[in-house]
């Protein structure tokens, strides 16, 4: 077997409204609704499905818990512009800019936390 790509991932969240606000207002994702009113956050050809803690869709992770995710997202904008945007949104930067290694090579990253305290890495690939 050979995996081609990631289709979606799931975040278990404590507060759907706070999560949707952060990912749409701060990170520029689009809220989508599907199925029987399920919610997801779309960006490019990807999406993050949202499960409300205690009311997860089955089947689910063995131990779904808000704040247990660590995601790295590649941003199209220069990282310094992202820093300015985050500051304007009142989102503190936990670390960075720092050099890291992404799936395709060297990246420069900054780290923030979402409302559930998930670690969100925002990066640019080094040209």
Task: Describe this structure in a few short sentences.
The chain is α/β, with parallel strands linked by helices and about 130 residues long.
Q: Can you give a write-up of this model?
A:
- The chain has 127 residues and is an alpha/beta fold.
- Helix content is 17%, strand content 42%.
- It has one domain: 2,3-Dihydroxybiphenyl 1,2-Dioxygenase, domain 1.
- Strand 2 and strand 3 (38-43) form a beta hairpin.
- The chain starts with 7 loop residues before the first strand and ends with a strand.
- 19% of the residues are buried.
- Residues 5-125 form the VOC domain.
- One of its GO terms (molecular function) is lyase activity.
Key structural traits:
127 residues, alpha/beta, 2,3-Dihydroxybiphenyl 1,2-Dioxygenase, domain 1, four-stranded mixed beta sheet, 2 helices, 42% strand, globular
**Share of helix, binned:** 10-25%
Name of the CATH architecture: Roll
* The number of domains: 1
User: What is the topology, as strand order, of the major beta sheet?
Assistant: 1-4-3-2
CATH fold node name: 2,3-Dihydroxybiphenyl 1,2-Dioxygenase, domain 1
Q: Name the shape in a single word.
A: globular
> What is the total tally of β strands?
8
CATH H-tier superfamily: 2,3-Dihydroxybiphenyl 1,2-Dioxygenase, domain 1
Task: Please give the oligomerization state of what you see.
Answer: single chain
CATH class: Alpha Beta
Taking the sheet with the most strands, its summary is: 4 strands, mixed
Q: So how many helices?
A: 2
Q: How far from one another are the termini?
A: 32 Å
β-strand percent reads 35-45%
Detail the poorly predicted runs.
none
GO molecular function, one term: lyase activity
Domain VOC: 5-125
InterPro entries: Glyas_Bleomycin-R_OHBP_Dase (IPR029068), Glyas_Fos-R_dOase_dom (IPR004360), GlyoxalaseI/FosfomycinResist (IPR050383), VOC_core (IPR037523)
Protein name: Catechol 2,3-dioxygenase-like lactoylglutathione lyase family enzyme
